[in-house]
Write a structure and sequence with these properties.
241 residues; mainly beta; Photosynthetic Reaction Center, Chain H, domain 2; 3 helices; 8% helix; 14% strand
């Protein structure tokens, strides 16, 4: 017979009952004690979509899991249990029907006929459970990006070659070829010549020239992230006396 030494019976009320697969069965509304040992033997559990049906489930093999009570039977088995009136006391016939439904042997109200603590009928092993890591992914907004155009000023230096004219004096000796031209004027006289000098000037103009088109786009990259969590698992030791 399973005993709950560290928990008062009143503390069971309102707890969720789950099966071995952690599927919720219902909530505890009452605890029925064994007449011979005064130990918790049956839990009355509200089941159904509206919680308007009471099913009885054996507490043998049950254990605490956080704030829930995990029993040795699945949800379907509990919900298909015989319909017994929750009146604070199970009759001999009602208890026999429940024992038969759960595949347990029933020896009468005066015998220590509680189900074995190992688990369901015909099973001489206990269930060992452990937590497994289930990792999912959600998409969250990490930021926003926008394009903004603004004007900056920078100095540009270029070397431009420019031309200019300079005066150069050329002298040539009197020869037979140029003698007549040289002696065509007065022998002694005053004269003056004038010429125009030209030079290139740098003229700077600015014009706006389109250079490129820029747009915002996004791409998806994949990186590995390490998940580090602590998982609990049950250990089974043999305590032989």
């Amino acid at each position: 017979m399973t005993t709950f030494e560290n928990l008062e019976v009143s503390e069971w009320y309102g707890r969720n009952v789950v099966g071995p697969d952690n599927d919720k069965i219902g909530k505890i509304t009452d605890i029925y004690l064994d007449n011979a040992t005064d130990q918790p033997e049956w839990a009355a559990v509200k089941t159904g979509l509206l919680g308007n049906r009471v099913s009885f489930v054996p507490l043998a093999g049950a254990r605490l899991q956080d704030d829930d009570l995990m029993v040795a039977y699945d949800k379907a088995t509990v919900k298909e249990a015989p319909n017994v009136e929750e009146d604070g006391q199970l009759s001999e016939d009602e208890e026999a029907q429940l024992y038969e439904h759960y595949g347990l042997s029933y020896s009468g109200p005066d015998a220590d006929s509680g189900p074995p603590p190992e688990g369901p009928a015909g099973d001489d092993a206990m269930t060992r459970s452990e937590e497994e890591l289930q990792v999912g992914k959600v998409v969250e907004q990490s930021g926003r990006a926008r394009l903004r155009k603004y004007v900056v000023t920078e100095n540009v230096e270029q070397t431009i070659p420019v031309k200019r004219e300079e005066v150069r004096v050329e002298r040539e000796p009197i020869t037979d070829a140029n003698r007549d031209q040289a002696m065509s004027g007065a022998e002694l006289s005053e004269d003056e010549q004038e010429m125009t000098l030209n030079e290139e000037q740098v003229v700077v103009q600015k014009q706006v020239v389109p250079k490129e088109r820029v747009r915002v786009d996004k791409t998806t990259v994949t990186e590995d992230q390490q998940v580090d969590e602590e998982l609990r698992k049950e250990q089974i030791d043999l305590d032989q006396q």
